[in-house]
């Protein structure tokens, strides 16, 4: 067994496959599919998306200063891919994919109602990096589909059936393996007695 050496490249996979909605004032909203996104700060809540300057959505986000990151369930994998392949210059993506605009109190840009999680963002800074520019944004609010709330009032990501992107392919998330800290959690006295 060995390892092959490759030239520098992005192999940090899987990543969330998200549909980012954006809108210039007075114009129809658009959707861009991205995988170059991530959490960058918890207080204040911030995230980033990276977009090629040539993409139609780039100027929309640059001008409006806001966008919505919509997490994608497996049932919308086809729409997610289509919105990444087709350009908003040529298509009304909400209309073509039969998606519904959801208007929140957080920002003017609509979210995608069919997505179980919508993260509303205001751009704080644009970092020019090379092939992509990174929009660094503060999260102004989140909406979640109440169908995926569990009995204890927590959002159940497993039931939301979200998708991820890995090296040119889409996958649905697998089963839950544990939660943060499960590897060091102390066993209760009752479970020790049963041994």
Q: Could you give a short description of this structure?
A:
By secondary structure, the chain is α+β, with helices and mostly antiparallel strands.
End-to-end separation: 39 Å
> What share of the residues does DSSP label as strand, in percent?
25-35%
In DSSP terms (H or I, runs of 4 or more residues), the helix count works out at 5
N-to-C series of helices and strands: EEEEEHEHHEEEEHEEH
- Whole-number mean pLDDT: 93
Low-confidence stretches: none
Lateral arrangement of strands in the main beta sheet: 3-2-6-9-10-5-4
Q: Strand tally, please?
A: 12
Rg over C-alpha atoms, rounded to the nearest angstrom: 19 Å
Structural class: alpha+beta
Helical fraction: 10-25%
- Major β-sheet profile: 7 strands, antiparallel
Dominant shape: globular
Keywords:
5 helices, three-stranded antiparallel beta sheet, alpha+beta, 195 residues, seven-stranded antiparallel beta sheet
Task: Give an account of the 3D structure.
There is one protein chain. By secondary structure, the protein is α+β, with helices and mostly antiparallel strands. Helix content is 16%, strand content 34%. It has five helices and twelve strands. The protein has helices spanning 56-64, 77-85, 93-96, 157-160, 189-194; strands at residues 15-16, 18-22, 30-34, 37-42, 45-51, 66-71, 101-102, 111-112, 117-128, 133-144, 163-166, 169-172. The strands form three sheets. A seven-stranded antiparallel β-sheet has the order 3-2-6-9-10-5-4. A three-stranded antiparallel β-sheet has the order 1-11-12, with no helix packed on it. It has a two-stranded antiparallel sheet with strand order 7-8. The longest helix is centred in the N-terminal third of the chain and has 9 residues, at 56-64.
